[in-house]
Amino acid sequence: MLDIQNCTITYQNGIPAVSDVSLSVSEGEIVSIVGESGSGKTTLIRAILGLLPPGGRIVSGQILFEGMDLTKVGEQQMQDIRGRRIAMIFQDVGAALDPIQRIRNQYRESIAVHEKLPQKEYAPRALDMLRRMHLTDSERVMDAYPFELSGGMKQRVGIAMGMIARPKLLLADEPTSALDVTIQAQVVHQMKKLRDEYGTAIILVTHNMGVASYLSNRIGVMRQSKMVEFGTRDQVIYHPREQYTKDLLGAVPKLGGKRFAES
Ligand code: ADP
Ligand code: MG
Known about the structure:
By secondary structure, this protein is α/β, with parallel strands linked by helices. The chain has a domain at 94-152. It is 40% helix and 24% strand. Helix 3 (103-114) packs parallel to helix 6 (151-164) and helix 4 (122-132) crosses helix 6. The two termini are 32 Å apart.
């Protein structure tokens, strides 16, 4: 479904933030990208939707999505894809909510750009997703302004917004890292359910090997702008090729998908 081929991305200084990286995602597949801070994970997934920060530029490579090269499509077409086909959850998604609109209105807009859904189905779908995010008082959350919610609540409201429109492909940049461990496990579990129920493919950036191990079909490991390892979940977790991957795995106490899934 998505095929990134030999992508190199630079910022103003011309030094590659992403060097010659290739990555593919099939329908309904969950691919995690792990790696140290500054290794290029955010740059890579923002590039997919043409959302690089100022100065960021794809200097070579292709990003093929449903037969189109996303590095070549115009802004109009990209907006269409962003709305309807591929959703992104940014690292600071809670902070990115519109401060002067109630959550209910933000969800309504988000659903409306994604698909034709009868008005009366908006609220039930939004409430359902909020409950899945373990926001118990979901009616109140719907009517709240962002400043009335805690940081963790805003984060989950933002994650729900990315998932609410049931995109074909969801890009999520460390969506749960600011959440406490129990909530994080629940949110991650809901992302997996989204895939199971709607066939949503997901690219998840995470620095949590436990999360990657629990969720992923395949895992990519980035280091210093390069994809140093990419393989099936079992290959990467149980038979890592790179010392760097072993070090990342070694940093996780008692790694095991089951344990994480149960929490
Ligand atoms: P990660 O998400 O893995 O932490 P990033 O993609 O944010 O890594 O960063 C990769 C590299 O690109 C780093 O060297 C970082 O300093 C650089 N970089 C990231 N964002 C910018 C930016 N807006 N301007 C210039 N350089 C940037
Ligand atoms: Mg990042």
